[in-house]
Amino acid sequence: LPPALMWSLLAPCRVPTVPVKNLTGSSPVNPALAGITGILMSAAGLPVCLTRPPKLVLHPPPVSKSEIQSIPGISHTCRKTTKKQAKKGKTPEEVLKKYLQKVRHPPDEDCTICMERLSAPSGYKGPQPALKPDLVGKLVKCGHVFHLHCLVAMYNNGNKDGSLQCPTCKTIYGVKTGTQPPGKMEYHIIPHTLPGHSDCKTIRIIYNIPPGVQGPEHPNPGKSFTARGFPRHCYLPDSEKGRKVLKLLLVAWDRRLIFAIGTSSTTGESDTVIWNEIHHKTEFGSNLTGHGYPDINYLDNVLAELAAQGITEESLAQEKD
């Protein structure tokens, strides 16, 4: 066919679309590839229509105070926290004694803290505790074996709150607490739905931590720390499982485990407030950053992260709302 006739036959055809859903490159069509395809199609005389990237929706539509509701079964709508002093009056040796059994005949393996043989004295070279360096103990729940010197040193380098976490399997003994700086946590229901949860309203959590000065439990005591991006807004579906997650997050807040002071993985800034291994959804109406909905596995994943910090349903009976 003559070129003119061929183009006239193609003209009524539907305009091809090259989807570019996400300019970060996470869409099915790479943006650069889509751009090259568009140029080639245009050069051949074919019409091109590029779809617009979806919009980032971090926050819900405006909500008036009269539309905000408290959450049934959870008292109050705000929780403040200050620095809690570590338990005093007991030496590290007295604390660890509750969690250990003495081992008279150590197994033929390495202590995973100092990497010396358990049958030899501890390789720890710091301040010496009031124990013989060749004593070995077994943690009663998980059964892992270490030099007592090494366990005392590990305890002294931690939060010294009366709890211990096995360095091999992460089993927690006692009640684990963190080093979260003082701040405020607000929580309530808003009359909007999350993507993937159209059958219920939304729980909004607002965290607010101001900058301040690091305490003795922080990386650089006496040095100031920054607090970027506060207040931080987070979202849960107002479902039975969503409320369960919120109750456990309140326990994590009271135990100072949601935030810590460290180096930001996104900006590289040191001495700043960072998330502490319990993931939150900070994107309300989209999921372009990966911190939004829909995400069918999120609630189960965050329950597992809370359990790794020693926070389970049993924790709710130990602490008041």
Automatic annotation (TrEMBL):
Pathway note: Protein modification; protein ubiquitination
Boundaries of every RING-type domain copy: 111-170
GO molecular function: ubiquitin protein ligase activity; zinc ion binding
EC number from the UniProt entry: 2.3.2.27
Any one GO CC term of the record: cytoplasm
Domain of life, per lineage: Eukaryota
UniProt KW keywords: Cytoplasm, Metal-binding, Notch signaling pathway, Repeat, Transferase, Zinc, Zinc-finger
Pfam family, one: DTC
Top EC group: transferase
Catalytic activity: S-ubiquitinyl-[E2 ubiquitin-conjugating enzyme]-L-cysteine + [acceptor protein]-L-lysine = [E2 ubiquitin-conjugating enzyme]-L-cysteine + N(6)-ubiquitinyl-[acceptor protein]-L-lysine
PROSITE patterns linked to this entry: ZF_RING_2
An annotated GO BP: protein ubiquitination
Keyword Cytoplasm: yes
Cellular location(s): Cytoplasm
Family: Belongs to the Deltex family.
Name of the featured protein: E3 ubiquitin-protein ligase
Source organism: Aptenodytes forsteri
